[in-house]
Amino acid sequence: MQTYNELAQSVKFKIKGSKIVIADKNPQLDFAGEGRSAFVFKIRSTNKVLKVFLPPFSHLAQVEAEIYKDLLGNPFYPVLYEYGTNYIVIDYIEGNTLFNCLLKGILITNDQIKEIDYALLLTKENGLNPSDIHLRNILITPRGSIKLIDVARFRQIKPCSQWNDIKTIFEKYYKKQLFPKMIPAFLLNLIAFLYKKNFFKRFLTNMT
What is the Cβ-side half-sphere exposure of residue 115, based on CA atoms within 13 angstroms? Predict the structure, then answer.
């Protein structure tokens, strides 16, 4: 197998309309997901993923790698294996994100919410500030345990209320017997967009 660096450099991007898409990659890489700053690939025949950052965000590779080093030994995060100028290599985590749980109607339990709280508490005890905690970077494994990914913003100084806001919705709405446990993607994406625009801030403040 090629080195991690060679695999990362095989990934080429291009602009297609208003989107950035993959133009080329090594066949050992299976697409696993994408975000605002990076694309993620499972390395075939391994239990590792390669996260390749887009050129404007390549500096985040070292930022995220250093945070994963600080989290070494914390059981709620993947292990870092290597990083380079535009990539990191971490554990592949099998499971469903909270976003996918809502898409598929997989029940999110109160115990799992408490476990996420505990994971974030341990993170703070590592001297970090868990930030940008949303439905797509929390996973529930097949055994029902919790894993968190995407830690690049864990050193920001300002407080982040995102997880507390998610918990408020969980307590006030999701736990209700008649609340739908399966929600379409377009509605989840609309809610996320409106949240970023602070549309729900006053609403959530009034709920607490």
Answer: 17
